[in-house]
Fold:
Amino acid sequence: MSLIDLRSDTVTRPTPEMRRAMAEAEVGDDVFGDDPTVNALEERAAEITGMEGGLFVASGSMGNLVSLVAHVPRGGEIIAEAESHTLMDEQAGHAVIVGASARGIPARPDGTMDPLLVDRAFRNPLDLHEPRTALIVLENTHAHSMGQPLTPAYTAEIAAIAHGHGVPLHVDGARLFNAAVALGVRASDLLAPADSATFCLSKGLACPIGSVVVGAGGFIARARRARKLVGGGMRQVGIVAAAGLVALRDGPAGMIERLAEDHENARILAHALASMPGIAGLDPERTATNFVVFGIRAADPAGPAGALSPRELRDRFLEELRAEGVLMVEYPHDTIRAVTHYGVTAAEIERVVSACRAALARCGAASAPATPAA
Structure:
């Protein structure tokens, strides 16, 4: 029985066309700026996002890091959502490498920060005791709110606050194209108010490696220097950039339009899970992109599973689910995350639903389903 891996959309495999493009890619030395495939990818990334330039980097974390280096002076402060990837999941690179402090603002259920709280988070530049606010970072889609997409109007509102205080806005757009597809807008619409962004090729777009930083020309020049500083200068990297050119094609020839399939599979999964005894904290109507986040609880608190903590029950469920041939992953606040992606079909989602029912019964969160009469 083959595994169905829903831990992340980073587990995708490149398409056959990507593999061919990689094998046939024309290459050069990218540090010298003469890899034609990388150059073409950076130009395409800039075009599709409405920015002046692009920079190919190894990962989304590297993309965010070099963007912070390019934007934030040492000792500056970053405003970001308190549980954003930049603050929580990048080994505090903003502090360790950039030398910046961070001010976290809690997210609302839709993944946004209250603009009033953002505005009030700015430091007083005349107070010698305080750092100077240097940047606002948004995350789109917002992961911990179950992949909620942030709208162009909201991004514009936060950008106006940033620019009113004289600082730039960076968008961690790891799943930017999921947001664009979910909202029915262009990526350039989402980024029009922003000064820079990063998006991942190696998540829902199914490339094996890489992200792209986009922004104005002067910013890209600073980010390029920062990329070299953190060891991200790669040589004949057109071999992997070629997959990105395939992914960013328009229409069915690329990988953006098909993200709608992942969103539909996530909705099917969320609605099925929400109907199961033992599933907690899941409103399927909030499934906007390719994330499904939920908890496990004992359907019968008086039963054996009722004595287990939410984390213990979650871990048992994941073990039983693996035994059924399905992988999901632990997520904050004792929850579980399932991420739909390229390579997972609607038929496999049906198998996942059956596996979840069986796992819930075996871990004690729900009663075993009745066996049909002969």
